[in-house]
Amino acid sequence: MIKDKFKKLVSIILTLLQIFVACPCGAANLEAIGNKLAAVPTSAAISETDSDLKKDASDASYVQDMESKINKFQNMEKCDIELGATYNGKCGENCTWKLNTGDKTLTISGTGKMDDYLLDSPAPWFVYSQHIEKLKIENGVANIGNFAFSGCCNLKEIDIANSVASVGLYTFTFCLSLENITIPENITSIGNGAFLLCDSLRDVDLNFCSIDKIADETFSGCEKLNSIKNIPENVTSVGERAFFRCSKLESIVLPDSVTGIGEQAFFQCSTLKLINIPKNTKSIGIGAFYGCSALQSINIPENVTSIGKYAFAGCTSLLIVLVMGKVNVVETSVFEECTNLEVVAFYNAVTTISASAFYDCSSLHMLTFPDINKVDTIEDNAFKGCTNLSSFKLPNNTKFTYVARHTFEGCSSLSDITIPENVTHVYENAFENCSNLNKVTLNSKVTFIGNSVFKGCTSLSSIAIPNLIESIEDSSFEGCKNLSSVTLGSKVTSIGDSAFKDCTNLSSINFPTEITSIGAYAFKGCTKLSSITIPSKITFIDEGTFQDCNALTSINIPKNVKEISDNAFADCKNLTTVKVLGGLNAVGERAFANCGKLNKFEYKKSATVPAHGKEVFDKCHSLGKINVNSPKYKGNYKFCEHETDFKDFMFDISSWIQKNIVWIFATLATVVGGVNAVIGFPKFWYEHKADLIKFIKNIRHCSCCNKDPESREDSLTADLLDGNKEGDQELSAL
To answer: Of 158, 286, 564, 714, which is least packed with CB atoms within 10 Å of its CB?
Structure first.
């Protein structure tokens, strides 16, 4: 609805520009201005979607944009007139007009009604509008017609006779030089946009006239308006955008007869410090006081039943709000970014707290409801960024069944929270970065906690996960640096990515037997985690799962694990022993890199050696023994004298040790003693060359010095190939 009305307004402005073009002067310039104005984005055209509403409301630039275009009219070339001449004509059945170019006075005289004018059929004096500075409407004239004096940019004085009963639509729009106006007491109606964009208008005296409303856009964009006096007692409504961007208006007294304040009525009246909400008011429209950054307090009287979205958003000086009306719904973003708001009190039952209702009210520390248990819905972001809110009791009733997304995110003073018995879901980021939250009680009926739900809760020391929860979602407890005790419910089957990442005080965790997956980086940076028993049903250890767990000293890889991903145990600086109890298929890149104290890595005798990624054991300086059971090396073992001592490098090939004792001896002798020729070696070589060459190929380059085996005097590869040109040729051919 707002958008449609503004489109109509823009259409009016554009047509008005076209009329200006009809003037014999400045046509080319005006055409360019009109085209540019058509493309101006507008905050008045607030979208019916909340996101667009917020964006447009915060921009609020259409008044300035239009003004900059209209001001150019003042610099237009003057129409050719004869100085001192008089121009006249009819402007109604019994009304006439006369323009004296000597004193620049336009006089309307006669009896009865003036004509209304259309944008494509303007008033006859329009072509002389640049030469009109004074307007006198004489006694006997009954009304002022629609658009009658729009665009009279130099009009400074208006004298309206008491016989005039009505002022039409957009009558004085763009009268940029008009500074004050007194409305005769007999006026019964003033049309929409009557004084729209009267840039110099400072003082308005409504003179207790007989109007029953302040119509839509009446004073919209009158940025210098600082006084509006004597509003009649029978005014029942303040229309949409009636005082839009009246940025010098400091105070206004509305009569008790007012029952409704329209959408954006006082939008960005940035110096408005004092306004009364009349006692008979029933509704306050969307964005009614948006951006009234000087407003300090507001009392909502008892007859108010609805306060629109964004009604007080951006009122950055607002300190206290008392809502005595029967407002059941706290609408979307109604107090958003009221950064100094400290106290809000509701005197009647509230059932719904809508999305972002108190978003970023960073000073809010007291919020009261007569009965919090009457609230059945709290929507997303409702209290996000309320950094001084230290306590809040969630409703306990059968309708309140979930804590919405981001509800208390960033409430850094909130110290404890109890999830009521009927709540089953706590959604994403609900308590993220509640850095002072030290106690959380989850009821036994909770079945779901979302991503990042307690992320960054640095004071939280313990948490018990109810038995109905099956999954710990991504980043649920990431960055909970004081979390030392975690009890997982019996039905937990999965732990998401980064779930406990950087929980630096967590020393142990007991996994339920049903866990089948642990996500990437789930325990990365848990520097005090000293022991871990990987659940038996785990088949895959994800990327970085236990990276940087500096207190870990040993780890057993369960028999069902088939793959260890990249960086899974990287940077575990105190890890000394790894036992692989089953048959791995693959070990990812840098899986154990920078485990400087790792000195024992065992594959179970029944296992086969998996494919290894690059730099699996990079900088494992203490690693001296890897036990395997097969010569079928499939990976990229990167070792040299800088990383491990080859004298302790053993190959346990027990499955064929009895059959090949002689050849095994020859191979070990070559490894340990650097022997270049052993009796029977050629036979051994040709029987097992495929396996051995593949292994040799995979260690051809050292991971730290990157030397070819021929340049490594004591390397295994060099010893095996020395003096065996045939073998060297076969390896090179691979």
So the answer is: 714
